[in-house]
Amino acid sequence: MLANSVGKRDLSVFPELLNPEDSEDWKRICDLRSNSTVFISDEIFSQVSDLIKANHPESQLTKDQLGLRVEEFFAEIESDKYGNWFYYPWKNVLVHLLPEEDFIKVRTIRNNYKITPLEQELLAKKKVGIVGLSVGQSVALAMALERSCGEMRLADFDTLELSNLNRIKAGVTSLGVEKLVIAAREISEIDPYLKLTLFREGVHEWNVEDFLTRDGVLDLLVDECDSFDIKILLREKAKNHRIPVMMDTSDRGMLDIERYDIEPDRKIFHGFLGEVDPESLKSLSNTQKVAFGLKITGLETLSPRMKASLLEVGQSITSWPQLASGVFLGGASVSHVARKLLIGEKVKSGRYYVDLDELIPVETETFEIPAQITTQSDYHLPTNILPSGYLPDRNELLELVEHANYAPSGGNVQPWIWIYDKRGVLHLIHDRVRSHSLLDYKGTGSLIAFGAALENLRLICAQKGIETEEILHANSFEDDLIASIRFVSKSKEPRQKEKDFELVNGIKIRCTNRKNPSRKLLDIHQMESIKAFCQNPDFILEEIQEMDQLENLAKVIGGMDRMRLFHQQGLKDFIHEIRWNDQEAFETKDGIDVATLELNGTEKAAMGLLKDPRTVSFFRKFFMGYGLTKISKATITSSSAMFLLSGKDFSPKSYLQAGKILQKIWLWTNLNGISFQPVTASLFIFHRVLKENDHGFTEAEKKEIVELKESFNLIFNKGGKMEELFMFRVNFAGEPTVRSFRRDVAQTLKFLD
Ligand SMILES: Cc1cc2nc3c(=O)[nH]c(=O)nc-3n(C[C@H](O)[C@H](O)[C@H](O)COP(=O)(O)O)c2cc1C
């Protein structure tokens, strides 16, 4: 700790105070004055003239009259011996100033009566502590300029870097100098009489008490540090000592006021933080800090540009952005409110915004989310199918359909409507209201889900001894009627001879597992078993396992995830398909429960930032958003193998068949302790962009997508001869944290009377 009180001066931080009445000091003044290398600033006559004006504001003195008064003033006082001299070693300047009281009076005269003399007197007794001197510097300077306190305790251990020079008032000559020293010197140049106490090591557990209480308990603590453990520590201690805390966050002018002086039981950070162990916060990376910081700042309320930037931390930027305008605004608002609080006005605890974008709006492009399709065409059921030979009763039918519905579907939209007609035939209809999305290009994603559901139905019927006849209708992508199932007959015994019968046991355990465990390869038997499910000559199942190939694929998939979110419909689908909390997932029983994404805190926070379409519109405008590629990278590089299923045809039947093949692989892998996750978005977008003119991407985006497709075809389906239908990864991830819900079967099954 350093202080500029007599005897404890550090000349590299504080000026040397020289009293001309003191013989030693006078000798030093004379030495310095006779040293030709020292610059002398002696404006004492003009300061005295200001003092005379300040003491006689009522008399309109002319220049000559004032000159006369100054002469009179120095008639009895030797000008050189008047006031004090200060030697600033870092500038090599000797300055002659008025004595303390007069200096303060003249320096702050223009505060009157925005700050009354009485208030100024009161403020002179106040002690303010500022921790963290990036934003804190502007608070400190504003408070020093206004002189809204009598003592400032400053703490920071950091030194100035070039990348600080977009917001910290300093120059290149100060690079490598402690931020604390820069602030202290600046303040000493404004007012060498202002008492400064410096904590050069920053604030820690071992000196926090000193910082808050030594030489008197602080009247206000301004927290602008960026270590979360210290933020918490400061608040806990401030509560003990009943010190109010203020913090500016330089985004949308966010200002937090926590009045522990009058509300000692108030929860820290207004209770936004919940229960946290400060120990766990000691060595966070910048990306982790972002996630944690979001708990405090809130996510929805950040500016769109801040949200976009936070998603780039650890990708295209190293830390979150701060602007001089935001920092200066913070300095101004903290010092404004601090002054009111210190003079005893009733400043209330809370979070406030001085949002210049809101106060002075500018026209911006709106980013419209297209409306949801709300109509469903009538179903045209076939009339030429023979009646069922066996008629399951209502309960049995519900059980069969429930098993079919355990099938996977893109975004868990469950795009199925089942209709049981009067002749005992069960029809599968595409519910386009549920499935309409960027990825469900021509209903291809839904067709895969239907293939999987029909496979489940076949297996459960076989287990119940029911023989079925499946009639596939979908001849064109526009057809809503997908398939009809006749129940031919029922025997008492399960139909064990039905192909792959044993997979029925996997229906209820099958799931998408998005965990990224450490990598373990499949053995030969596992690989062969998976490939054996694709013996159909119209389909090919390829796999990659080499890390360099996986890494190349990760780049393609990451790039395509970014493209998906750039697309208006793609973003809308994303925002609508995620169920952001347990309750939402439970109530809707569809969509992707955020818990099934197996994200860590940082990733979850990043995901939440995407809820604001303005974030992505900003990325799109500036072709950014590389943070969006991170999650897929981990998905792919942690997989045992990636598989691509391709087919000869791009047709509804091809997709239905692909769905069936996949479901068998999925059931088999899950039954054998192997985890499965589809990775499909890129394939659906490739088809849309390469097969349609009106795809909704810009030319630049299309170009990027075409390039990514070319890279893709260097890895899989070389030469692009087949139609890529579905891609998935397998690994050994154990049990997923949670399982996805399904809608109540009764809502999906209609009985025709
Ligand atoms: C056609 C299709 C595409 C899918 N694409 C993805 C994907 O790209 N990424 C992913 O994590 N899950 C994907 N899934 C998995 C679904 O999100 C998942 O099946 C659904 O949420 C239900 O969860 P469950 O599989 O655990 O029952 C896809 C599923 C289907 C049928």
Automatic annotation (TrEMBL):
GO terms assigned for molecular function: oxidoreductase activity; tRNA threonylcarbamoyladenosine dehydratase; ubiquitin-like modifier activating enzyme activity
Extract the Gene3D superfamilies matched here. Answer: NAD(P)-binding Rossmann-like Domain (3.40.50.720), NADH Oxidase (3.40.109.10)
Per the record, the domain of life is Bacteria
Q: Which InterPro entries match?
A: Nitroreductase-like, ThiF/MoeB/HesA, ThiF_NAD_FAD-bd, Ubiquitin-activating_enz
Stored Pfam families: ThiF
List, in alphabetical order, the GO biological process terms annotated in this UniProt record. Answer: cyclic threonylcarbamoyladenosine biosynthetic process
Q: Where is the THIF-type NAD/FAD binding fold domain?
A: 115-323
What protein name does the entry list?
THIF-type NAD/FAD binding fold domain-containing protein
Instruction: Read off the lineage from the record.
Output: Bacteria, Pseudomonadati, Bacteroidota, Cytophagia, Cytophagales
